[in-house]
Amino acid sequence: MTTYDADGITLQKVRDYVWEIPQEGEMRAPARVLASEQLLDEISDDKTLQQLKNATHLPGITKHAICMPDGHQGYGFPVGGVGALDAEDGCISPGAVGYDINCGVRMMTTNLSYEDVQGKEEELVEALFANVPSGLGGGGIVESGVDTVNEVLERGVEWAVEEGYGVEDDLRACEDEGRRPDADPSAISQKAKDRGKNQLGSLGSGNHFLEVQRVTDVFREGVADEFELEEDQIVVLIHCGSRGLGHQTCNDYLRKIEKTHSGLLNQLPDKELAAAPAGSQLAEEYYGAMCAAINFAWVNRQLIMHRTRRVFEKVFDRTWEQMEMHLLYDVAHNIAKKEQHTVDGDDKTLYVHRKGATRAFPAGHPEVPAAYRDVGQPIIIPGSMGAGSYVLRGGEHSMEETFGSTAHGAGRLMSRTQAKNEYWGGDVQDDLEEQEQIYVKAQSGATVAEEAPGVYKDVDEVVRVSDALGIGDKVARTFPVCNIKG
């Protein structure tokens, strides 16, 4: 097959797993989809391809707009999308970052084996659910005033460590050491701060979760050794973002941009792509606000990790240090950062928008933490509750192919409404426990139904394509032991 047709859009096969929508009409660049034919069939089921094509109309789009193997329809810009926009002549788009700014995952390793946990699964899942806040609305580990929120927005994980919610090693294992220096707390509205102040240290709802996992497979032993991963080991995966603060911040700036930059908006095929021209006051304000929300999300995950360490101490009757509960890495999924990239031989400063996509810098890149610079940046790709997850490392072709990016998960196959019509939460929980020995605890059955394993694409196939393209290399695979959800 050399071409693929879907709803009036024709993609041309560039090579294995690389499909291109050629530049035409008002498009400022071509678009590329990185997928097998199986995944392409699923990606083309909704408006993903049209949204990707629409994204090429953004001023300053560089090289091509990209859809990852886990891509699906989002708000304006597809989830699984990467767009690098010129930071001098282009623009920045809140819709291409998403409402949950710095939604992401972090993985914590331990020296526990699966055998150590067997027989304690129910006690562990109940204790985690009782101690890690989840669900809609307020309630966090830290009940804070706005002054505290401002410190969190400014200083990120550095604040959490100083307050006793972490250790120095946690900073060294986090992207940017857990702090975006461009953060501007004053660019975050009071309404956003009020929404966030009582949510610090909470999972939220939807697809966010805390999952205890066991390592089932190791694919690259040397890299796994550097990541301190081995078969049968227990690890913990935390997936959440900036809660109501990030959502409100995205909404605030979308409305401001729609009013202030209506001329640019009218040039775009979808108002949900609303963007502020690079160098404009709103572009600078949004970037500062987004960086502050990034810091908030990092602290949110840090506090949840701190509470998880405390729960493990009680359940296993030893200190977290004795269990060697160390942060492996923290990866952002919804973010736009100013990065330096070489394009056609020229060094450019770009706003690299990753929406439902993961940074995947290769070995030797100066922004990879020193501990991993020789092997490449760790990448954590969660699957569904019944399919397991993966740890990858930045691939050697990621910079040239994807601006140093890869997929962020399995990617949805069906909407939440459809999922609730197809599945019953209690049945999903029972099946997972009886058939897979996976223990799930959630605020509601509806949440479990929305996140049933059948709702998602095949994460094994997503990762296979990433590995084959050399943008994210397989290191290890994990499988759920117990899971708590909002």
Automatic annotation (TrEMBL):
Residues noted as binding Mn(2+) 1 in the record, renumbered to the chain: D100, H208
Residues of the active site: H408
PANTHER family assigned to the protein according to its UniProt record, in alphabetical order: RNA-SPLICING LIGASE RTCB HOMOLOG
Listed cofactors: Mn(2+)
Full protein name: tRNA-splicing ligase RtcB
GO biological process: tRNA splicing, via endonucleolytic cleavage and ligation
Stored InterPro entries: RtcB, RtcB-like_sf
Protein's UniProt keywords contain NADP: no
Pfam families per UniProt: RtcB
Keyword Manganese carried by entry: yes
Chain sites annotated for binding Mn(2+) 2: H239, H333
Organism: Natronoarchaeum philippinense
Catalytic activity annotation: a 3'-end 2',3'-cyclophospho-ribonucleotide-RNA + a 5'-end dephospho-ribonucleoside-RNA + GTP + H2O = a ribonucleotidyl-ribonucleotide-RNA + GMP + diphosphate + H(+); a 3'-end 3'-phospho-ribonucleotide-RNA + a 5'-end dephospho-ribonucleoside-RNA + GTP = a ribonucleotidyl-ribonucleotide-RNA + GMP + diphosphate
